[in-house]
Amino acid sequence: MALEPHPDRGGPGTPLLQAKTLTKHFPLGGGAVVRAVDGVDFAVMKGETLGVVGESGCGKSTTARVVMQLIPQDKGEMLFDGEIVGGKDLTLKEYRRQAQMVFQDSYASLNPRLTIEDSIAFGPTVHGVSKANAILKARDLLQRVGLDPARFAARYPHELSGGQRQRVNIARALALGPRLVILDEAVSALDKSVEAQVLNLLADLREEFGLTYIFISHDLNVVRFISDRVMVMYLGEVVEIGAVEELYNDPRHPYTKALLSAMPSMDPDNRTMEAPLTGDPPNPINPPEGCRFHPRCPHAQTICSKAKPALVVTASEDGTRRAACHMEIPGSGHSRAPSLEVAA
Amino acid sequence: MTPLVAIDNLTVRFRGAQTVHAVNGVSLTLEPGKVLGILGESGSGKSVTLKTLLRLLPESRTDIGGSVRVDGRDVLALNPQDLSDYRGAVTSMIFQDPALALDPVYTVGEQIAEAIVRHEKLSQKAAMARALELLELVRIPSPARRLKAYPHEMSGGMRQRAMIALALAARPKLLLADEPTTALDATVQIQILLLLRQLQRDLNMGMLFVTHDIGVAVEVSDRLAVMYAGQIVETGTVRELIRDPRHPYTKGLLAANLHGARKGERLEAIPGAPPALTEPPNACSFAPRCKFVQERCRAALPPAVQLGEGRVVRCVLAEEALTAAA
Amino acid sequence: MTAITESAPAIVVPPLAKSPGYWAGVFRRFKKDKVAVGAGLVVLAIILMAIFADYIAPADPTRSSMLRRLRPIGTPGYPLGADELGRDMLSRLIHGARLSLFMGVVPVFIAFVFGSVIGVAAGFFGGKFNTITMRTVDVFYAFPSVLLAIALSGALGAGITNSLLSLTIVFIPPIARIAESVTTQVRGMDYVEAARASGANALTIIRVHVLGNVLGPIFVYATSLISVSMILASGLSFLGLGTKPPTPEWGLMLNTLRTAIYVQPWVAALPGAAIFITSISFNLLSDGLRSAMDVKG
């Protein structure tokens, strides 16, 4: 038997994935706690690509692992097409057929002792597909990711280049016929010329299989190219989320602004003259009170160290643009905040 | 003016189970006080070229040909004593991973002071005072306290600054930078790039900056050299290369950087992957991946076409353009 | 997505040109290692010698002769001399290889099976299970192996079976430790995460993704213990806790010949040399295997 395609249960209006106050803390010795993911809310609509950006320690990779349920969340829940992940309507095993992940390290994510086709066929056999069928499917997928099965199917991972291996990892993720694919820095380790090939492939596959992507990367250019919407994370929290061009052209959160202006200019006549931020991103152990960005923020005022700003709807026509900054919250007490009357 | 660095027809070959022709005839010059960015992907030979300048390659299994002159010295001919005087005092290097350069069991101050004392006759106390100055120079906050800190007690950006201070300890004339910002976060990367740019200018050092990231190269360099398969395929000023790239590989790299690329566009990706370099090149190494490939690209090495002062392109297309213009 | 056509059970998967594969690569790298190949040949020769001892040995290893006691090497009819009871040394060494090899290989093999099970389980499941299992193993590991072997053998009483048992117990802890550490490493690899993400249960993941990657290194480590086991077994026999005379066994031979060290030092040293050559060959072989199994060669 082959795997049945998944029906669209909730209809186009239901987000494919909805994360509600996802929280994951890692206790360290001596009472310290790494607040890797701290109350993260977001939704991914069907067929869209949500880019996730942020620096080391912002929690983007932990978020990916929680969404994939490789580590359980401490708090919060996830709805997949309207059903609770791990609930009675959508068991974890069923969920894992519908959500798959591609990792950054193309070598570490393939078993060195299995041939390429065996690696791809493993998932389907777990779900009851016969070995012969799974192998045929694997070869079909290899073709689709641009690797000639006659040449590659029976090879081992160390015989392939980094770009080829990442194609195999993508084929492996697609073998179960998922609806959601989480790409965790999936192109970051590749050379630029190879990265472009893989990005084209990802765009083609999204079209062909009707996939939804969560695309995690530190490379803002790549995220801009592939995403419909972008979520910016800082120290385990979402600071801004919105449509990609809106967010890149008019960032509302000071951290998003800083991140964007830290990008190299690519213009020899207009080189960056001043670093937008000083110091390193702080450690997610004992994050600052109030707004977590306030110690590095050029616009920080008293209110910022006292109260945590909520993620509120901000300048956008359709209300999908949100930022967590006191300067965006009417009457927050920040001198640059819009006044209440205007908002009302 | 005599150039600070003059590399002529450098070849580097690693012997082993399989011989690797890592560098295949690289020639470049660097004027004092200037920055040359060397741009290339993994395996292009950019880091190997850089390491040759400090003779850091394992000599027992490396064959080096050609000549390398730095500040008037024939680097490949230095005897062990001269080599150790040369390292650090004339040429110094910073790495992608500060863990390679900083010793975990000594404080940052001790390491910098040690590097100073090795090249200058100074008391330990005077060396420590200079180490403090260096930490101030690289703008480490509360430098007096950081002098006594161990590398693991510092954040990534801070360690990178400490490594730069260490590299500057003996006042080198040439700084080699091997992807020093690749492992850093975006907001830290730009800080380090600006710091390096300023230090290079203030101290009037020459700098060779190796990177795979065009954006980074543009931020720091005066001139660029693009490497592919152990050869320089194009050189010129940053402006010339960004505004008017001539080699198909340079064009491909610029497109792959995605600067300003919009969603839904199809990327002009270079197909295939770089060659394995088990043989020395006898034709254009880029030919198998090139859209504009011609018969003669596969028959012989492409000509090094001189388009202007310091502007060289190794491609038959550049030759055609030149003859068409003439 | 195009589903695979449901052409019932008769699906034929066309075979593809096989890549040389992992083991072919191991063999190719191993062949290049002259020392390891040499050691392997020595080990092979010793094994063949043990198997065909009855046909190779020129004389009966237990036939003694009071007239020919302690003859030097090269005595006619006694190419390697004679021992303190006038038995042919060459024949005794050839026959002795059987028990010595047996005592070297069997305890290690049994310990390999049990140690791997314990270590892989502890490494894969981690957490409290790991802590409890590995601390228990550590209690045994804390004793020096010689002391533990002697203590166990002494408690169980002399004899081959008991020394076999005690040696097995001695080798389980170190093998379990290695198994646990390589398994912990493999468990953290992305391909194991990816397998979990595909919905596979723990046993399937261990079978498909863990065992193939950990058994090799554990096996190589176990090979290096064969020489230790031989030496310990010899030691037990030497102390009278292992084999009983007149059965030829290298350790026991070393013991009974020790009084002759001043009379015929070369003959007395022969069993020691046999132990030495065999154990060093096993060690060199396992070193060679380890570097050959390193994929990035």
UniProtKB/TrEMBL annotation, chain A:
Pfam families: ABC_tran, oligo_HPY
EC class: translocase
One cellular-component annotation, GO: plasma membrane
Major location (coarse): membrane
ABC transporter domain mapped to chain residues: 17-260
Family statement drawn from the similarity comment of this UniProt entry: Belongs to the ABC transporter superfamily. Glutathione importer (TC 3.A.1.5.11) family.
Assembly with partners or alone: The complex is composed of two ATP-binding proteins (GsiA), two transmembrane proteins (GsiC and GsiD) and a solute-binding protein (GsiB).
Protein name: Glutathione import ATP-binding protein GsiA
From TrEMBL, chain B:
Cellular localisation: Cell inner membrane
Family per similarity comment: Belongs to the ABC transporter superfamily.
PROSITE patterns in the cross-refs: ABC_TRANSPORTER_1, ABC_TRANSPORTER_2
Pfam families: ABC_tran, oligo_HPY
Protein name from the UniProt record: Peptide ABC transporter ATP-binding protein
Organismal lineage: Bacteria, Pseudomonadati, Pseudomonadota, Alphaproteobacteria, Hyphomicrobiales
Highest taxon, organism lineage: Bacteria
Main subcellular location of this protein, as a coarse class: membrane
Keyword set, alphabetical order: ATP-binding, Cell membrane, Membrane, Nucleotide-binding, Transport
Species of provenance: Bosea vaviloviae
One of the protein's GO biological processes: peptide transport
A cellular component annotation (GO) from this entry: plasma membrane
One MF term in the entry's GO annotations: ATP hydrolysis activity
SMART domains on file: AAA
Record bears the keyword Transport: yes
Limits of the ABC transporter domain: 5-254
Membrane topology category: Peripheral membrane protein
Automatic annotation (TrEMBL), chain C:
Protein name: ABC transporter permease
Cellular compartments annotated: Cell membrane
Pfam families for the chain: BPD_transp_1 (PF00528), OppC_N (PF12911)
UniProt-listed Gene3D superfamilies: MetI-like
CDD domains per UniProt: TM_PBP2 (cd06261)
Family: Belongs to the binding-protein-dependent transport system permease family.
Listed GO CC annotations: plasma membrane
Presence of the UniProt keyword Transmembrane in the record: yes
Keyword Transmembrane helix: yes
Keyword terms of this UniProt record: Cell membrane, Membrane, Transmembrane, Transmembrane helix, Transport
Coiled-coil ranges per UniProt: none
GO aspect biological process, one term: transmembrane transport
Residue ranges crossing the lipid bilayer per the database entry: 35-57, 99-127, 139-160, 218-241, 262-285
Ranges of residues in domain ABC transmembrane type-1: 97-286
Chief place where the protein resides: membrane
Domain of life, source organism: Bacteria
Record's bilayer topology term: Multi-pass membrane protein
